[in-house]
Amino acid sequence: MMFKSNGEGEFNDSSSQDDTIIGQSIKIEGDLVSNGNIIVEGQVTGNVKTEKDLKVGSAAKVSADVNAQNAQVSGRVDGNIVISGKLELAESAEVNGDMEVGTLEIAGGAKFNGKCTMNGASAPISTAKTQEKKQDKEDDLDELDD
Amino acid sequence: MYYYIYDTFLSDSKYEKTIDKIKTRLLDLEIQGKHEKLTLLKSLEELVRDEVKRGANTVIALGNDKTFLKIVNIAAQLDITLGMIPIGPNNDLAKYFGIKQEEEACEILAARKVVKFDMGKIKDNYFFSNIKVNKNVDRLGVVKGTFKVLPNPNCSEVIVSNFYYPEAEQTFEKKMKKYSAQDGKLELIIRTKPKKAGFFKKKKTISPIDTIIQSTEFELKSFEYLPVIIDGYRVIKTPFKVEVASEKLKVIVGRDRLKSIK
Fold first, then answer.
1. How do residues A17-33 score in pLDDT, each as one tens digit?
2. How far apart are CA B117 and CA B206, in angstroms?
3. pLDDT tens-digit series, residues A36-64
4. For chain A: N or C, fewer Cβ within 10 A?
5. d(C-alpha B42, C-alpha B99), whole Å
């Protein structure tokens, strides 16, 4: 899970990287680049890029191209989204733009207008591999029992 | 050599006994030095500068938060160690530094545990706690590298903070827990106007934190000159650049200091 589900906007990762919280009462113009987590509750115009996770709150309006590791969107994004890991669109989300994601989760009611490319990021592949390995191990154990 | 500076409010006769006790305790602990009382006619910075020329390397502020904050600029410029003996009310900083009131503070000075803190820097001036804009906030723009932050009229304060210390421990905001004055960064904090309390609620509410952005430098810009309060007592006007000066201030702290202070 990227963010805590309590909705308070706290990060799970408490490392020393920059954590940026963009509140409802401000507007950002330009390229918002960070090496830490970003929470957007206000307006952003330009580009948003982070090496970590991004959360777009339900009241947020992002008119920008977005690039992040994982993202959780509950607000509006007008722009292209590139997510190497997992993208979650909540029911209040509205995305107008193309998406390139590793894994995608869309809640009922979410709006998405654009093209979606899924490149199968490392997370689901590794999960599948682990499941295969698990199955192999179980088979081995069964053989030993026989 | 130690140099003890007494704030002006300590001239009041009600503090005489306390000061005598402190002086006696300092004698017992053999950390003597020159004692000087501030008056309206004496410039604190000039006094410290002269005494450092004469060989003082540690300045002890006797008074409250304001006394300490007034001295940090010159202490950082001259690279001297700063200590404090808290006397009277408004001594929140001392609590966070783990320095107990009056005589007990003398023992902490004698133990001399020195910790280095970051400072905020504007041109050649330093500040320890924060700089604050609380009027016409929506006319201000804060630039951080590639982007610009524009507060709307709903904002009540724009603060660039180095050391966060609320007036009471009960009002310590969770969001600010992870930030310290030893992380080599400053925090841009934007507060919104508090919601109006109900008719029967007389409790004073603090403005909620809306935005937090960390950086090593920010630029404060505006079309007109806006007053900015530094450390709660000095005023400068926009535009200017504020940056962090890492490990610039040496302070004597106690054992019961904030856990986040290394």
1. 557 999 999 999 999 99
2. 27
3. 899 999 999 999 999 999 999 999 999 99
4. C
5. 27
